[in-house]
Design a protein that fits this description.
Layout: E1 2-7, H1 14-25, E2 29-31, H2 50-55, E3 58-59, H3 72-86, E4 92-96, H4 100-107, H5 118-131, H6 133-143, H7 145-150, H8 156-169, H9 173-176, E5 187-194, H10 197-213, H11 216-222, E6 228-229, E7 232-233, H12 249-255, H13 261-283, E8 289-293
Parallel strand pairs: 1-4, 1-5, 2-3, 2-4, 5-8
Antiparallel strand pairs: 6-7
Helix pairs in contact: 3-4, 5-6, 5-8, 6-8, 10-13, 12-13
């Protein structure tokens, strides 16, 4: 039994590649994009089109609400249960997505991480509100430069989790991720898709423009109602982590009058390019990935 994981930076063409491979071998596709799981987010997460979903059966596409807490640990459990069932009728399966932590969860396991200290987490969230994300970035860079260089430092949730584990245990967050991998009852093959940086950045810019044409702003407006907590408007988006996703938080800033529409679009492009770069840095440490240049 073999699980083939198609990974790579955003906009590189993972979905098309995975669908082509899945059709060749007769496999469904297991999604491992942490944002495509949420049903309220379609345009901004580049969910496969209706035609693509018809061509090949997909799992974990828009199966959760953004109001539900769903993280890599639960994904590990759900994905392994699904794989166990699917391997009863398939010798080879395809997984596709760009969320490194979700891929690590399936391949290596994440149970070694300590249970969160909620007092510490609340304290870090309060610092985020009062001091901004730069304060947390600076502390993480001092305490764990390896994590600072590989995680999404624009994502407050990831920053807080890395700091939380480091401060709680006295051991760097990055060191926890070097624990021995949990054995899996199937072979794992990782195929990484890459392309020339300028070409990739051009694809990112074009995709953002297409998302705007396809109604991304209208989608973000439809999510505005979720920014209320206990009847009180919460513009900082802290209680709904998916709303901080690139492409959404910039347009919320536009809707809040903080930046212009043109600036929001340009920030989406810039932040998406930065995200793609961090994705490649994250996977650069994994010597088991077979890279294919498109």
């Amino acid at each position: 039994m073999k699980l083939t994981i198609i990974l790579g930076p955003t906009a590189v063409g993972k979905t098309d590649y995975a669908i082509g491979l899945a059709k060749q071998i007769g496999s469904p596709i297991i999604n491992c994009d942490s944002r495509q799981i949420f049903r309220e987010m379609t345009v901004g997460t580049a969910v496969p089109s209706r035609q693509q979903l018809v061509e090949v059966k997909h799992y974990f596409i828009q199966t959760k609400s953004i109001t539900e807490h769903y993280a890599a640990g639960q994904y590990e459990i759900d994905a392994l249960n699904l794989l166990e069932e699917l391997f009863k009728t398939h010798d080879r399966l395809i997984m596709c997505g760009g969320s490194g932590l979700y891929i690590d969860a399936v391949c290596n396991g994440l149970d070694a991480f300590p249970e969160p200290d909620m007092d510490l987490r609340n304290s870090l969230n309060q610092r985020l509100k009062e001091e901004g994300i730069e304060s947390l970035r600076y502390q993480l860079k001092q305490l764990d430069p390896e994590s600072y260089g590989t995680i999404d430092i624009a994502n407050p949730q990831r920053m807080i989790r890395a700091l939380e584990v480091t401060l709680q245990t006295g051991r760097k967050f990055s060191e926890w991720k070097t624990e021995p991998s949990k054995p899996r009852p199937f072979q794992i093959e990782k195929i990484g898709l890459a392309m020339d940086r300028e070409r990739l950045y051009g694809r990112i810019n074009s995709r953002v423009d297409k998302m705007m044409d396809d109604g991304l702003l209208e989608e973000v407006k439809s999510l505005d109602r979720f920014r209320y907590k206990d009847g009180v408007f919460s513009p900082d988006l802290l209680h709904i982590p998916p709303l901080r996703t690139v492409g959404y938080r910039e347009l919320f800033d536009y809707l809040d009058g903080k930046i212009s529409r043109a600036d929001a679009i340009e920030k989406i492009k810039t932040n998406t390019r930065h995200y793609a770069k961090r994705q490649m840095s994250y996977w650069g440490r994994d010597k088991n990935i077979i890279w294919k240049t498109l």
